[in-house]
Amino acid sequence: MAGPECVLRRSCATELMNIADSFADFSRFVGIRRDIHAHPELGFEEHRTSDIVARLLGEWGIEVHRGIAGTGLVGVLRQGSSTRSIGLRADMDALPLHEANQFAHRSTNDGRMHACGHDGHTTMLLAAAWHLAQKGSRFDGTIHFIFQPAEEMGKAGAKKMIEEGLFDRFPCDAVFALHNFPVGEVAASRSTRARSWRRATPTASRCAGAAPMRRCRTPASTRWPR
Ligand SMILES: [Zn+2]
């Protein structure tokens, strides 16, 4: 982020609107997210989730590498001639909790629940992969889609992936990740730690999509408390 005040340029806003348009039918991803939510798996046990991710990436023409830290996997998408590369990362594991929700896609694995939103993270990264794999997608270089096991409970799935050669096999100039927090705010940080971030409250204007993101305020005094 360039500074306490960032303004997305017009080209970025246009790009965001194009991305939004490409998801005119995003019911598919709603279905994927609900399916993963209904079948939560603990860290290093994300076999079903990993299978779904691998199958979808493969269907979209993305090269798939499995078995990194057990259930972890990486999708590789190359385009153009640039040698630069980035990583986009999501975590896949659930928590050992009983889900009390009664909606149709509540957990079917008693004592397991996607209470931290990793079902959403996994689906968002799948959606990004789908979008970027579309013909006409504009990037030059390599994108590594990193699906990490075992973020919860101190199991350190990311550390295990790195120990097993994640960045030796899939070098990244930068890695981007997010953690959802459904209160209508967006946070961003240059930090290497997800918990050390700055909050941004988009100033909503006329419509959903790019417009609310046109101006992002990041007051340095408002830091996430954990
Ligand atoms: Zn989480």
Structural features:
226 residues, alpha+beta, Aminopeptidase, 9 strands, disordered C terminus, binds zinc ion
How does this structure look, described?
- With 226 residues, the protein is an alpha+beta fold.
- It has one domain (5-97, 112-217): 3-Layer(aba) Sandwich (Aminopeptidase), CATH 3.40.630.10.
- Helices cover 28% and strands 21% of the residues.
- The chain is built from 6 helices and 9 strands.
- It has helices at 10-22, 27-38, 47-59, 118-132, 157-163, 166-169; strands at residues 5-7, 63-68, 72-79, 85-91, 141-148, 174-177, 186-188, 198-202, 215-217.
- The protein has a 5-stranded mixed beta sheet, with helices on both faces.
- β2 and β3 (72-79) form a beta hairpin.
- α2 (27-38) packs antiparallel against α4.
- It is globular and about 50 Å long.
- The model is unreliable at 1-8 and 195-226 (pLDDT under 50).
- It binds zinc ion.
- Residues 116, 118, 151, 179 line the site of zinc ion.
- Zinc ion is lined by residues 116, 118, 151, 179.
**Shape estimate:** globular
List the ligand species.
zinc ion
Structural domains: how many = 1
CATH topology: Aminopeptidase
**Major beta sheet summary:** 5 strands, mixed
Distance between the termini: 21 Å
Helix-and-strand structural type: alpha+beta
Proportion in β-strands: 15-25%
CATH homologous superfamily title: Zn peptidases
CATH C-level: Alpha Beta
| Mean pLDDT rating | 80
- Number of DSSP strand runs: 9
> Which quaternary structure do these chains form?
single chain
What's the arrangement of strands in the largest beta sheet? 2-3-5-4-6
Helix content: 25-40%
